[in-house]
Amino acid sequence: MNSILRDHSALPDRWHRLIANPFFWPAVAGAGLLFCIAASVLGFLDLYLQLILIYVGINIILTVSLNLINGYMGEFSVGHAGFMATGAYVASLLTIRIFPSGISDLFFPLAIFAGGVAAAIIGLLVAIPSFKTRGDYLAIVTLAFCMIVKSVLENIDAVGGPRGLLGMEKLTTLPWVFFWAALTVWVIRNLVFSNFGRGVLSIREDEIASDLMSVNTRQVKVIAFVVSSFFAGVAGGLYAHALQFINPKMFDIIKSTDILIMVYLGGIASIAGSIIGAIIFTILLEILRPLGVWRMVIMPLLLVLLMICRPSGIMGLRESRLFFPLRDLVTERLWRKRKKENGDAPA
Amino acid sequence: MAYIFQQALNALQLGSIYALIALGYTMVYGILTMINFAHGDMFMIGAFFCFMLSAWLKQSFIPALLLSMLGVACLGVIIERLAYKPLRNAPRVSAIITALGVGLFLENFTLALSPYPKNIPALVSNTAWKLGSLSLSSLQVIIIVLSVVLMMVLDFIVQHTKTGMAMRAISWDRTVVPLMGVPVNRIISMTFALGAGLGGAAGMMYGLAYPVIDYSMGIMIGWKAFISAVVGGIGNIRGAMIGGFILGSVEIMTAAFLPSTYRDFVAFTLLLALLIVRPYGILGTPHPQKV
Amino acid sequence: MPLLEIQGLTHRFAGLCAVSNFTLSVEPHELVGIIGPNGAGKTTVFNLITGVYRASEGSIRFEGRELVGKRPSAVTGLGIARTFQNIRLFRELSVLDNVRIAHYGQVRYSPLEALLHMGRFRSEERRITNRALDLLSVFKLEDYAAEKAKNLPYGLQRRLEIARALATGPRLLLLDEPAAGMNPNEIIMLMEFIGWIRETFSLTIILIEHQMRLVMGICERLTVLDFGETIAAGIPSEIRNNRKVLEAYLGEEVDGDAP
Fold this sequence. Notes:
By secondary structure, chain B is mainly alpha-helical.
């Protein structure tokens, strides 16, 4: 009996009740947003710190979205940079060439959203090979896709060719990054704790059994790829408007590798893990910057050591209780049953 | 016509190099089901060993070749023992990420020690032979012949020696084979050594053909060789050779007839198409899942 | 009208004929058995019915509808569920989630509503979770709801697999060696259990099994396969003494030995 309640009663009741309050998370998110707006407008965080936090936020979006495919669904996609590139280019083209320049901050969210949609459409294309192939062969498909996107962008002069696009305004601010990062975490957490999320997990566990238990695996794969690539596109758009220039070389396999490292560092199939992984990776890289080129010698070494000591990453396969759905009926029903058995008044 | 022949030779040369590297990937995958993403950097280290041996220690072609291959083979075994062995029973992706980490480490370590590209001195006199209207470069011939010889030696080892038989056995079933008295750890180290050695040889030959070497030369080539291995059917040694030559040919032929910026695009699209038609690679067999 | 009608079912794997001209007709509420030595093709028949393999030849009609060519999730959606020879639970997922996943086809909210946890999401989730918990309590697994499936003892894992299959709301249940690894007492309890679920859930059942006590005890009809071919079909008492069946299981009679 104790085992069922173990997961849910580990948090002291006060905390549980606080988090269970429907206004808790909106309040936290609102407070975070206000903080970011204040920091950005009033300037009490210096610009360098703001930039770091912006990169952390972008990396969170990338990591959480890739974790959906690589962690929850158990695939090995190395093409995330390709989706990021799509979003970056589409969003940038919109703000530079299409939207009127004076009021671009009003159109900024639209541009980012459009970048995400474009990336999602490409994600749909990549989902199709995933119906038939899995594992390492799908890894190759995503790898080839990433390289193809980069090559295509290098060959189209209308989008700048190898030199890329310049002249985006610095529209990415800390509040915007916070907003999109919070949205990513919320949406993907919602998806994971839903019918389709359970479908994703069942595909990782045993795809054939999943199919036979009525799961429409094609539908699930499409949803996972589309959602994942949408947010990668969003991250790309934000990235482009923080850096203010982009070129194809930024979105090659090395970028995909960086995102992969963050995912596995933080732990697969864990949103909290992805957030932690993104934060640690970004900040560690900054802290080690004085070491110059030796920074990238130490970093991989630490990564290898981590993998040897803790192969499933920091929070591998364990999710923070903070993200669990609050009204878990298992707890309620069994809690009531236990209370009745112990002679308490029925709840 | 002569142009096509010329390009065919180039394709053979590039293809041999891809094939040699692809063999390292496929052998390790076959035996451990692990993608050793640090393998492309073995190629790069091979080129640097060759540089050090020839520029600093003034070695000539054959000693440089043998010592480079030996050096890279030892490095491969060391990496396997230190970084991969502890993860043999961990989830596969952890091993892959570790491999990525090792690769990054090798690249950046080399970069830190050698910030500027280096030049490999010419160890082989590159004479041009003329056959009618065609011209062959002796270096090209040496590369192709040497690669083929190395591949034949590997094929012999795998098909006709006890070690090779053990390697093939382990690739089918890793649990039962030790019970048959096979020293699994030694065979695995041997596999890494062979694969790395071939990669090192490829690095040296590449360095002789395109004499400027730098820390990043292994990255793209490594990924391309990996794709070759998969196209040929990953885990299959002959497949890796075929895949390498296919990729080399596609790349050279594309560059020969289309603007060079299209090269990667066409190559990868064709490979992708090939995988869609034959999802398990040319010589690959799908592992039938027992339901 | 027969619930399930299989005619001329043949399946080849790269030159090897796994199932050859298999024919079976099952009426509603029957309990039919498929038996035969290892490798006879019995599980292949299940895989063909459920769409895991696509038959090389032949037809499988369920309630009049042709099944050959349909994807497994579609076959399950039509009302056929199965268990597996080697238990194939979702090991890292909780017992409750294993059963909830089987409700995938019955969930009535769209992906968009799932992404935002809005609309019909909450009410449907509550409905599905309650149904799953009800099913678990019927199978006396409710107490393990939050436990990971891989941590259950073997017997309970088998029970969970059956509960999960029943969560899809089938009219036909395919059981693949449900008695594997059980001792004689457990087999007796399994026999009662199968009879009980057949009544409670109004099921038609096809059973693959090696344990003769179970087979002879509850099957109303038997089909015997050997090397993919049907060598006998009929009621258990006929099959028990059929010479070809005995030869298939025990080998050919040698001079001087009594059958």
